[in-house]
Amino acid sequence: MSRSKEVITCKAAICWGVGKAATVEEIQVEPPKATEVRVKMLCSSVCHTDISSLQGFPHNQFPLALGHEGIGVVESVGDEITNLKEGDLIIPTYIGECEECENCVSGKTNLCLTHPVRLNGLMPDNTSRLSVRGQTLYHVLSCATWSEYVVVDVNYLLKVDPTTNLAHASFISCGFSTGYGACWKEAAVETGSTVAVFGLGAVGLGAISAAKMMGASKIIGVDRNEMKKEKGEAFGMTHFINTNVSDKSASDLVKELTGMGVDYCIECTGVASMFTESVEATKMGTGKTIAVGIAAELVVPFGLLAIVFGRTLKGSVFGGIKAKSDLSIIAHKCQKQEFPLEELFTHEVPLVDINKAFELLKQLDCVKVVIKM
């Protein structure tokens, strides 16, 4: 019997305040409203932003239903939904794409004005479909993927092929696609150009994959974990720099390999000191750096001379990927197994052991932790 009009009680990972450990508790999930979809989550994964959310980023609203990467199946739809049905496999996204607003038609940005990034932890009508112990539950961005069920506005969902690998689809819902898009959409890397990628987590490996796809002649991975060398090479990296084994700066080490620096640098670490280094690693006058890593400190020191000498630093959300037109292309490549995404899958934990995921992320061999729902 359909439960489309019923409140569902299920388990979810939540946090009750800044710095507090996550707990797995029973929550209530309301039916979807007219333009909403209730989703049964099948697979989720952990991104660095999930760690930041425990510290009050991107908002300070608690209690907080955690998670933003994942894939699920449609459980029920609102009365006005015509493009999705029960049983469809979908990826929740944290940006929308109306294809009509000034930003969407400009071709200059993926940040839709009609369906913007949700930074207050609520649905577009500024309410929530989630509650715990009678209290409103907020989510990190457009939804909460570390929950057995969640309600998402239809404009933040992408339907994918039912044969898609669930874990791999979870990876492209944020991290991998962010890096991939940074090279593909934001930097628009040209054939024969040179690229440096700072930080070889899932985001950085996505950037390397796109650099290879775009025909870069030299793809330099920069990390302080020697174990990332093998991962980088699996995605197309041609050179590796371990910053832990040299007293020289990361930018100087990149220049030793290239002479004048790279054409493009993708900064994925979010480490404050690396912002200046990533810009200085590019060519004077023409170098371009795309910053996708979120720093622990939202205000960071920056060396002005790095920019004064003609280089460009550009910020990016979701790597410039549009939620429908671009992510669908990546999803198709994922379904056709065009990326070695199995290289990202290093650990798995059940939802009830969610705090173990945060411990696993500290291990040198950890890239992505999959949460089994």
TrEMBL record:
Gene3D superfamilies: Medium-chain alcohol dehydrogenases, catalytic domain, NAD(P)-binding Rossmann-like Domain. It holds the Pfam family ADH_zinc_N. Residues 202-321 form the Alcohol dehydrogenase-like C-terminal domain. InterPro entries: ADH-like_C (IPR013149), ADH-like_N (IPR013154), ADH_Zn_CS (IPR002328), GroES-like_sf (IPR011032), NAD(P)-bd_dom_sf (IPR036291). The lineage of its organism: Eukaryota, Viridiplantae, Streptophyta, Embryophyta, Tracheophyta. One of its GO terms (molecular function) is S-(hydroxymethyl)glutathione dehydrogenase [NAD(P)+] activity. Keywords: Metal-binding, NAD, Oxidoreductase, Zinc. Belongs to the zinc-containing alcohol dehydrogenase family. Class-IV subfamily. This is Alcohol dehydrogenase.
